[in-house]
Amino acid sequence: MTPAEMESRIVRYGDLRPCKTAFIDAHTPGSDTKENFTIIGGGVSESADQHVHIGIPHGFNIGAAGQPPKCRNSLHSHRTAEVFFVLSGRWRFFWGRYGDAGEVVLEEGDIINIPTGIFRGFENIGTDYGMIMAVLGGDDAGGGVIWAPQVIEDAADHGLILGDNGKLYDTKKGQALPAGVAPMPLLNDVELAAYPELDAVDVIPGYIARYNDMMGMAGKKPVVVIGEDGMLRDKPGFEVNFVTRGSASGNMHSHDVPSVLMPMRGHWRVTWDGGAATLAPGDTMSVPGDLMHNAVPSMTGEASLFHVVATADAAGSTWKGS
Known about the structure:
Elements: H1 3-7, E1 10-11, E2 35-40, E3 52-54, E4 60-67, E5 72-77, E6 82-88, E7 91-95, E8 102-106, E9 111-114, E10 120-124, E11 130-137, E12 146-147, H2 149-157, E13 160-162, E14 168-170, H3 189-192, H4 200-207, E15 208-209, H5 211-217, E16 223-227, E17 232-233, E18 238-244, E19 259-265, E20 268-272, E21 275-279, E22 284-287, E23 293-297, E24 304-310
């Protein structure tokens, strides 16, 4: 594969194209300054304005959210995994029907695998613009977003209507629901009863890995962060590994499916049959299946990288293995 061909599979942090109207809360005060990015796969955006950087199916989606201080993403749920790691900033994740069942604060490098079937939201509580990177299970990411009823009601008060086709219509721009499209129905009380109100003690131990803990566990081989036998035990249809300077062997290897490299700290030199490229924090690289390659730090200092690869497990609800 030539360097030019591979460059088309690298999304540089500085080249990310944001969408400010991706979701139903785009006009809701407190959420109206966030930016959403669809990096790999179709994502779950409800807006036709969302740019997709790499549309190649991987078995999962890669996205990101960028938010200034005090901006929050509204309460929603997914049918497949939603995994975040904090690239920059300080973030509060909260969950429950009204967002008050539990919360946790994540720092740079921390990762959270939010259980399916609960309403969740997140807020930048740092002092600067922050970015979190996301992995969503499945090529169709579970078919979209399920919003808490009050989010849809609040959005309508500010001009945005979500159709039952999963598309947004902005009444401030004179848009209306097309013929044959009804408003997205609100979840009723019976449906809402299926969404548990998990306490923080139920979520934090098994679904959050701290950056310093991952660094401490990293020896001469990568740490399996999310996987059947990982720090966070789950089978979401993909596996997340954490690679450091000491665990980057430099051996050429390949996977039979596309994989993704996402540096957290330091610069990484990726070499493959046909060329090489250097990745910086915030960059995302899709490596084709069956391509021999390696990744090693290219400079001294702290170096860490998240590696995501699809597995044979079907994307779906959080695995409750023993």
